[in-house]
């Protein structure tokens, strides 16, 4: 749970006379007030403590100046500065408080517990030198956020399906068991398999009927961040959850790939709402690292919309597109991820704190009831 | 027509006992069954034959294992394993079969014949050293898929309009005849013409009225993949088909431009539905190459939405953006193409077979009735 | 006001016999007609004059040829060539004229005067070595195009809010005064501030209540084109106007950054319609440069949709993404800008004239009533 500093009581801003520039002493006095008002931060934001001290003169409520040159026409409303006429101001204040309370509730619930965790690493069994993975597709109930149950079509009862991770050159077998009421198939998106392993019904194979099983086999080719998903009635089947990460580790790692945390982040926007790895905020999972560590994030978009992913506080160094190295790494803080794309980035965790990390199409991330959907955090602990 | 392998009869999967891991012998026996069940593949997929042999132990239906460790909670439904209670299972099976039949019908119809072919190369006539192209804009009926007639506003009765292809430095004249019920103009999108040839009504020229003609003339400047289209009431006029490729070949080709197939792929999503070169699947045109050949694809988006184009089985090497070389080529399998953008890619056709090639916004490519709209194939024949 | 050349009278195209290729003399005669028909161009298009002369043989109405080889099936309609049957042709012509008049009206009104100008540079006041900026958030009425008043939530009564521009390493204080009926905060998007200055309610600070003020302070870190905006109920608050440019100039400029014009272009698509810097066409502001000058455009998307920005006549050289230099500059004429992204480009103004510059999602830029929304011009004067 994030237990953030409580907002100051309204009178805390009413103690400085109108028109007076707040002095450094005022700041410090209020900082002390804040420190008292705020219960000890939970571990999730403990990394911020020192910074808070360093910038003691900032990050604090100050009193409005009566007429600033930057805003010559602005009228300081009557309710400002401690002399609030009760009804109107009270109603504005009550409305704002009610909205803020909803926002706070969401943040405090993060990361919220829900049943089921998607994308768990699937250990293969070895059969005569072949790494064998079995996935069973069936209809389940899936909890996307606390109390919100949706119908999902899932591999091994997970949304996203279990993460399959092999090494370049491995012989790989994936056995699909179809327990759905529809036919299905698996397409290995981005993996350059022989044509008859490509999973496109009536082009490369017959559809796998309800009750049937089907086996795919190939030698893991081009390394990188790939996906597996249904390619039959796919707008529905992928939208309902028949998708997962398929990662092929390279025989030869590049120096830039030596990271402390390797995180897969699958975006979706289908029937389950706006989700990261099958969950909506506040049930999304924070990414956690220590100061100085390197995090690799493998973005994968399995939805129907673009999602420009924005990280606060630190930039991302883009290294791979669809598993292929970019000619040179490049930096950004907002990365546009389109359906079917994979982008690999490295974050050098050099800025401690809890950093919001979300889709920047704002209606995918926040409503007047607070944050929801495509929001999580990158937490850099000291 | 693609005539793909038929799905196995349901009892083919019922011959192995529950809980038994399918043996290699089982795979091979079924492979033989499949080979019998499948009529000889039509030429469109003949390239896949050898691969199919090589991976004879895979790509085949297998029987579900009763309880796999990867799916501990899964309940094998009663209808699995040959002991199907007639009514429920029959109904699931019938529903799945009915859906699959619709999907199969679409695939088998590909590439479906329709009247009219867009983007045909327009040979110029020479007039005193000037390459003269004439395009007549008028209202026509256009068949986007078999039996689906739409109103189109077309250049020379084609959607997209005819391909205009010149060489850097050529003197070019394009004469527009307006037989539409509205005024129109031509804008040469991406071509750095003198301002008065830019085709923007009331800024660079008067609109060309119904019944009038208008002549554009310039020396072909910056080479690359460009477009020409209406710039008057353009949301409607371009949406209805007043668009085409305008390609300026460079005086000096780069080595990477030496290709065997040079293919223009214009995306649209207006009043004609989701189309590639004016047609929706199964009436889209496959791109055909021989194993080892290089294909250049010139993506052009004339629609109102982004379309992340995904190629199966092989990657694309991106060389140009809007006709300008990228600083270094880079690779991907899913390329996000936004309205007005052109992207040139090279595909090294090193993986034989029929490869699905589609927009990865899945509702642009597939419904529960099967594939439609923005789907085609890259066929690599051996 | 743009006062463009008037369309030719209909009979001007009827003077050449059917089937005759228009001669050079015909072109020149018509060019003269045009020159007479067109009142002197206002200064906004004066740059085009010489080009118009140079290409006197083109850019002119010509008469349709009766049957061109390029359009074998086309029927030249009876109304073409001066022998128009009165009723039908009259009605088509009247409809086209009425539409064209609406289009012309919009163009002639550009750039239309409206109350209020967004994004004005905000001069800081110095306090003991700190650059202090004050912004007051409050509800205002904002004129997006002539006569269209919308409710805006604005910083210092501007949409976008005032431009804040500092230098890498500056100590910066931003004081927010909240006169809105809701709580709010400021997030410095892209700026790598200490966590407690990041402006995310309940994670890094309490929300700033109606009537309260709040102070942010940090040392300007990573240079580049960044933004500041609300991060509380942001889909609404940013959509209503609580946003602005936050630019950090580098200590050390790169050679490519030496430009003549430095222009910020903020895209939005919320409750105010499709806007550039808070205004819709024809109230958008043209970018003006002299031939040979270099213009830097800093694209910032504060909306909810992607906007592929297309410049006519010249290309853009992309140098920065989100304030970070690209590994190597690259060129394009259509740049896809997603929400939250910033892209910096350089335009070498080597092509004189008035160049349309717009989002290429056409329904964001034009309707049957003419251009609107996301349209402006880059004017290169000689």
What's a quick, concise take on this entry?
The structure is a homotrimer of 382-residue chains. With 382 residues, chain A is mainly beta. Chain A is built from four helices and 23 strands.
**Order of strands side by side in the largest beta sheet of chain A?**
12-11-14-19-16-17
Distance between the termini of chain A: 18 Å
The Rg value of chain A, from CA coordinates, equals 25 Å
Strand content of chain A: 35-45%
Shape call of chain A: globular
Largest interface: A-B, 73 and 82 residues
- Tell me the series of helices and strands of chain A, N- to C-terminal: HHEHEEEEEEEEHEEEEEEEEEEEEEE
Structure class of chain A: mainly beta
The helix content of chain A, as a percent range, equals 10-25%
Main beta sheet of chain A: 6 strands, mixed
Return residue spans of chain A where pLDDT drops below 50 for at least 5 consecutive residues.
Answer: 1-59, 63-87
Plain-language structure description:
- The structure is a homotrimer of 382-residue chains.
- Chain A has 382 residues and is mostly beta strands.
- In chain A, 13% of the residues lie in helices and 36% in strands.
- Chain A is built from four helices and 23 strands.
- Chain A has helices at 24-37, 49-54, 86-109, 234-239, and strands at residues 60-62, 125-127, 130-145, 148-155, 164-167, 171-178, 187-189, 213-219, 224-229, 243-249, 261-268, 275-276, 287-290, 294-301, 307-311, 316-321, 324-332, 334-337, 342-348, 353-359, 366-367, 370-371, 375-381.
- In chain A, the strands form five sheets. In chain A, strands 12-11-14-19-16-17 form a six-stranded mixed beta sheet, with no helix packed on it.
- In chain A, a hairpin with a 6-residue loop joins strand 11 (261-268) and strand 12 (275-276).
- The longest helix of chain A has 24 residues, at 86-109.
- The first copy, chain A, is globular.
- The relative contact order of chain A is 0.13.
- The model of chain A is unreliable at 1-59 and 63-87 (pLDDT under 50).
- Chains in contact: A-B, A-C, B-C.
- The interface between A and B is large, with 73 and 82 residues.
């Amino acid at each position: 749970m994030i237990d953030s500093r409580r907002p100051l009581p309204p009178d805390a801003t009413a103690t400085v006379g109108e028109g007076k520039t707040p002095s450094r002493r005022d700041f410090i006095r209020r900082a002390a007030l804040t420190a008292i008002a705020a219960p000890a931060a939970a571990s999730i934001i403990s990394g911020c403590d020192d910074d808070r001290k360093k910038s003691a003169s900032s990050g604090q409520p100050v009193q409005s100046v009566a007429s600033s040159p930057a805003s010559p026409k602005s009228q300081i409303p009557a309710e400002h500065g401690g002399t609030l006429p009760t009804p109107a101001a009270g109603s504005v204040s009550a409305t704002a408080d009610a909205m803020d309370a909803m926002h706070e509730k969401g943040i405090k619930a993060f990361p919220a517990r829900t049943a089921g965790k998607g994308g768990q690493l699937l250990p293969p069994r070895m059969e005569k030198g072949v790494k064998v993975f079995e996935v069973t597709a069936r209809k389940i109930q899936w909890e996307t956020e606390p109390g919100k149950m949706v119908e999902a079509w899932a591999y091994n009862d997970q949304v996203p399906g279990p993460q399959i991770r092999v090494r370049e050159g491995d012989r790989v077998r994936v056995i699909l068991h179809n327990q759905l009421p529809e036919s299905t198939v698996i397409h290995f998106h981005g993996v350059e398999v022989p044509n008859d392993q490509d999973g496109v019904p009536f082009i490369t194979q017959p559809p796998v009927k309800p009750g049937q099983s089907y086996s795919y086999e190939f030698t893991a080719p081009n390394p990188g961040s790939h996906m597996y998903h249904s390619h039959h009635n796919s707008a529905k089947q992928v939208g309902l959850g028949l998708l997962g990460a398929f990662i092929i580790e390279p025989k030869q790692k590049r120096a830039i790939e030596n990271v402390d945390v390797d995180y897969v982040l699958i975006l979706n926007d289908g029937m389950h709402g706006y989700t990261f790895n099958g969950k909506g905020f506040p049930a999304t999972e924070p990414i956690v690292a220590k100061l100085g560590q390197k995090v690799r994030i493998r973005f994968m978009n399995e939805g129907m919309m673009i999602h420009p992913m924005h990280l606060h506080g630190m930039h991302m160094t883009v290294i791979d597109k669809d598993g292929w190295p970019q000619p040179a790494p490049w930096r950004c803080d907002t990365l546009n991820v389109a359906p079917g794309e994979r982008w690999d980035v490295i974050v050098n965790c050099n800025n401690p704190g809890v950093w919001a990390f979300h889709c920047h199409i704002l209606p995918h991330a926040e409503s007047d009831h607070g944050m929801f959907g495509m929001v999580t955090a990158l937490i850099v602990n000291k």
